[in-house]
Amino acid sequence: MKNSFCTFIILLATAILIFVSCSKSFLDEPSRTVTINDLINNPANGAQRILGAVYNKFYDWNIHSFSWIGVSSITSDEADKGSTPGDGGADKIEMDNWLLSPTNLSFNEIWEGNFEGIGRACYAIEFISQMQLDESEKRRYIGEAHFLRAYFYWNLVRCFGGVPKINKILASQSDIEEASKRVSAEEIYMLMEDDLQQALNSLPGQISKSEQGRPTKYSAMTFLAKVYLYQNKYALSKTMIDQVVNSGLYELLPDYSKIWREEGEFSKESIWEINCIATNPPKGITGYTEVQGMRGSGDGDFGWGFNVPSQSLIDAYEPGDKRKDGTILVSGTTLWDGYPSSSSLPNPYYNYKAYVSKTHETYFERINSNKNLRIFRYGEILLMKAEVYNLMSDTTTALSALNELRARAGLSPVFAGSQNELTEKIYHERLVEMAFEHDRIFDLRRTGRAGAVLRAQGKAYIDGKHDLFPIPQRQIDLSGGKIVQNPMY
Amino acid sequence: MRTKKIQFPGLFILSLVLTMQAFSQSTNVILKGSVTGASNEKLAFATIAVKGTTQGTLTDESGNYILEIPIPCILKISMTGYITQEKEIRVAGNYDFNLAEDSKLLDQVVVIGYGTTKKSDLTGSSSTIKASDIRNIPSLTVTEAIQGKVAGVSIINSGAPGTSPKVRIRGVGSILGGADPLYVVDGVITTDIRNLNSNDIVTIDVLKDASSTAIYGARAANGVILITTASDSKKKFKVNYDNQLGMRLLINSVKMSPPGYYAQYANDAAEFPAITQGDVTGTTDWYDQITRPAFFHNHNLSMSGKINNYTYYFSSGLLQVNGILLDNNYNRYTLRYNHEYKLNKNIKLGNTLSYSRFIANNKPYSVFTQAYIAAPIFNAVNPDGTFGNTSNVINNVGNPYATIKTVNDRSYGNRYQGTLFGTYHFLKHLDFKSQVGLDIENNNGWEYLEQYYTYQANGIQGGQQNEKADLRFNRDTIYQWVWDNTLSFTKTFGSEHEFKFMLGHTAERRDGWMSKATITNYDIPNDESYWKLNFTDTSRGQQNLRDPIENYFRRESYFARLNYKLLERYLLNATIRRDANSNFPANNRWASFPSIGLGWILSQENFMQSVNIVDELKIRVSFGLVGNDVIRPGQFDLRPTERLFTYFGTDRIDGATVTGIVDPNLKWEVVTEYDFGIEFSLLKQRFVGELDFYHKKAQDALYTIPYASLGFGNSLLTNAADVLNYGVELGIKYRLPAKNEFTQVVSSTFTYNKNVVDNVGLGRALNFGSLGNGSTATQTLEGYEIGSFWVYRTDGIFQNEEEIKAYPHIINTKPGDLRLKDLNNDGIIDNLDREHIGSYQPKFMIGMNYAVTWKNWDASIDLFSLLGNKVYNAKKGIRFGSNYNVELDVAKNRWVPGSNENKNPRASNTTPFPSDYFVESGSFFRINNVTIGYKLDANKFWRSIETLRFFIGAQNPLLLTKYTGFTPELPGNQNEAGIELNIYPVSAVFLFGLNVTFK
């Protein structure tokens, strides 16, 4: 007995010794999740995954949903807050009435959402550069990442003016502290132009069905045309517009109202849009259509009813303008899919472009709808063409572009007055053509009309202050005060 | 005063000699009887001797004795661990003796890390709770029952069934590294003790200072709670049955506005007639609707005994607790088998094995908030049995009753926890122990959201609905093992130098996987047999995920302890532990944690012998380093975030990228701790106490330094803060002189703790404490307590427009709104005007117990009080303008034009700013437990019954507090505790119980 126990002790001691001698490796816990190297070393799907993560940002609540709807639409004259009078959606009453404070949550979300996108794009550029990939494929992927980065900056620079300039991976806290300062808006525009030039040079002109959602060379050109336009670089803008038009790839959809329906997805008019899918597993822009859906009850409950057409928008349509019916959902009418909307809704009008049919379109659930967000379309190219040609004194070309849009809308052509009169007409056409396409407020500011237009509607717009939105107080605090506020806030 | 410990075989011989000597006397009588202990258990091998002689005997294994003695004489009855009794004997007969337990402070055997020792030999601060002290308190975990009973330990309970209380030893020592103490159950290290049946526990030892805890090195910073379950039995055979039956009732409910007050308030707030007469289609008190008196019962049956060299303990338990929230319940079944076998005089083998299973029906606690804001003007259930619609244009709140009834959220799990050990005594002074501990957990849960609709009173379908069913299923499998080996050397050199040296090694691993399967929006029948999913099926759009558990690790450590005692009065204890944890980068993986403690037992000194009032007196001082290594794996290297899905065309891509930055040099938090203590026992052991002063400083505490969001996360987890805790603890116990069969004991604990964050990275505060309305109310920042409330100061109410114009104010301010102070006088009300006005951490904690026995009766009462803490009544501030209901007091006392009300603001739908209007005192005084018991002399009619006791009791029957919400007892993360939002209200329990022991 005793002997056997002694044997046991000896064995145990041996076991401990073996364990101790092996303990160096015992403590090395292998990683359970994917590592960066796993991605970089498997370029076949690693590149897609890293790039996919950048696109994924488009679906997030903090970039294209409630906050963006507030910032880019409810603020403008085309829309009212909507919903029920009491429901402020936390900060949307402030947005509607221009009582903006730096602590407003939406601005912070827009800041964070877009910078997250920028970070992901920087990672994609850096990591994909390190991958062993076919050169042309690699160039295209990196080009896409540059395009996407420019898009995120585009949203930021239009909202806040100059923001911190991030064009590489920030790897440590000191990197971040160093980058936590605003550069001028011009510097951001320069970065965007570089990014878009790079995209333009490396993206294909056309993509296959299985690539829908990715930008093409012409998406980059359209984007660049608009970026030049915002900087009043008309000649540069014109070259881009001409190339898009002359590519012959794009034309107007005959029926305006179908642009924003499922059947209008990736149509001939589409230059770039966010690809949303509502078959299980769904991936839509979180809450985009729900936030704007009719606030009814029971079967008639499509959402929260925010961001509704304003009376001034309704009044802006000329008699017979087909775009009105494609943009304004009138409560109590039968909708295009045969659905009889309720007449007892809290608001008389809703955003028709955000309506998803439960019966005639792919429908899975409210929060993840199939509604593609149309970012660039041929209609806008024509608007820009009209504007740029007019400013460069080619009124004829300008008019023909404008009248192409009017013809589709079922309206008679306009004729030239003065250059200024035509400019006004083009501005007006922009309002009715692009209502609820997240453009209006930025367009008003670009053209210096925001104060006059909004004050006429009783909004507390202050020139010099409200031409930019407030930098989120939270970001100022987090930077230790290195990020500074816009004037007058 | 010390009772000498005698080895059993020696005692046998001694007793034989004694008995033989007794026979030689002449005028002798025969005495018979038994000796019993505190809970009437029979005491085997108690010494019964004639005072002043060598005559005497020992009780047998069932506690009985027969003895022949000369009369008259004085009989002395003694046993280790019990107070010696004397009795004058004049006539022969039956004499039973009942010995009181000797609570002699310094002689208690206490459990320490990897061993036991005598309390007198300790140089550190630790407290022992005996199972008998908490046996009658119904609780899921033992920690609930010891609230107020241990100085320096803060325990905050939740009223929700199946949840653990928050336990903090000597303050909150960490900001982000985890502040829970380490639990060691029979040597198995764990963080969750919900699987333990309180009745199986023999002792709970709370180790508080570094001298006691440093043997647990890197995991000891928050204190250690050692739990020992039943094992060796002194008696041959014993069966115990205990039960408790009771009722749990919601007390201290907040009164909400009835329809009339509600409509007035809502209309004034909306500034238009938001609610008209026609909108009122019912009357519902939502709290009444969703709560109930809840029944619970608890049964425990145990069997223990000793057969030759084999001791065993077997138990089974059943606990069924209903929550006061409708349909919410938690059931637990436990089994335990502990045994020990002495192979020979040197070798002992044994195990502790336990199994527990829980089955719970969970309900979302957010319904308490829903019930708070839901309009009282709708029906919960329509006359036709359908759910009433509450969520419409008027009141954007779901029907809480429908929520409860349509969420089917169940969880169940099995846990196996046990140890196998062997000890070997060899070469006279050496002891070797090897122990393997295992902890295997398997938790499952499923949630089925059924298809349902709600209807307005007019039959129109409401907005709250679930068109298609959702089903979620999850399974976590976790296993953990630990292997400890210790070698100790014990020897006394001469008679002055007592040495004990221990050397040990331990290795530990925790691992496991969590699997999840989800089907959304699919027609799944409302029938339990369809609610199981396997984790590979992908039909019906099923999504399957498998992830590692959050806290897997591998650890390895070496440790050593030296106990040296000189002349029975000078003590030196030193420990060191060297620890490694796989969750730290290889370059920072190993760290050492030493401690040293010195003690001086003054009462052993000659100069103290003349001080009669003092029985024992010890002073001690200790210093040590302990660590906090509660950190998730992979925090030091950049890991991509996966499942960032995107679609190209119809192809789904699983996007993956990096979304933050990491500190590649992450390391342990290190706590430097000093302790000075005095232990005393006065007045013939009647008054005992322990006083401690401590100072703990956590350095390199984990902190997420926040930075601007530039696309690379918004904070960096690094070692960048210091946290200081210092305080005083006092525990005293006074046993009143017994008189007329009355015994009375008063004990009390008193704790003062001061917490302060000493230094944080780049001086940037962390904001926590979401109020559910977009703003936050707490901040952790240098110079303040962790989780301090950070709010605007208010200065009454704006009475009119002129006042508003004359004073800085926030946009949209109207008469009747709170006037927020412009503290920095810059004319703008912004974050710079917010102030830190205290936290949920109490300054003082007081616990008191009074126990009395009289003949067969016993009674005890526990009192508990927290003082100096603040509570944020966040329920009052969740308004999004959807005509939420308000408290009746708020509706009644609100400002209206001309009222001059200067405290309660006007009716408003604006989301309020976090201000001191919502911060209230969280101090309270409470009767924690009251018990009255009666012991029946049942063995007179049934010999097998040793004891039979009935008792009635109440838990939390009385709460005194100024707080106007539901409960000031609000467990939560240290950075945001004390915010009453989605809180399960604390309830009172009234119960009946029974303890019976069979022999």
Identify the biggest protein-protein contact and residues per side. Answer: A-B, 100 and 94 residues
CATH topology of the domain at 4-213 and 468-478 in chain A: Serine Threonine Protein Phosphatase 5, Tetratricopeptide repeat
Unreliable residue runs of chain B: 1-25
The CATH class name of the domain at 4-213 and 468-478 in chain A reads Mainly Alpha
Counting H and I runs of at least 4 residues, what is the number of helices of chain B? 10
Helix content of chain A: 40-55%
**Within the largest sheet of chain A, what's the order of strands?**
1-3
Oligomer: heterodimer
Short synopsis of the structure:
Chain A has 489 residues and is mainly alpha-helical.
Task: Describe what you observe in this structure.
The complex is a heterodimer of chains A (about 500) and B (about 1000). Chain A is mainly α and about 500 residues long. Chain A has helices spanning about 1-25, 35-40, 45-55, 60-65, 65-75, 90-95, 105-130, 135-160, 175-180, 185-200, 215-230, 235-245, 290, 310-315, 320-325, 380-390, 395-410, 420-435, 440-445, 450-455, 475-480, and strands at about 80, 270-275, 305-310, 330, 350, 375. In chain A, helix 3 (about 45-55) packs parallel to helix 8 and helix 16 packs antiparallel against helix 17 (about 395-410). Chain A is globular and about 105 Å long. In chain B, helix 7 runs antiparallel to helix 8 (about 400-405). In chain B, strand 5 (about 75-80) and strand 6 form a beta hairpin. The longest helix of chain B has 16 residues, at about 10-25. Chain B contains ten helices and 53 strands. At the A-B interface, helix 1, helix 3, helix 7, helix 9 and helix 21 of A face strand 27, strand 30, strand 31, strand 35 and strand 36 of B.
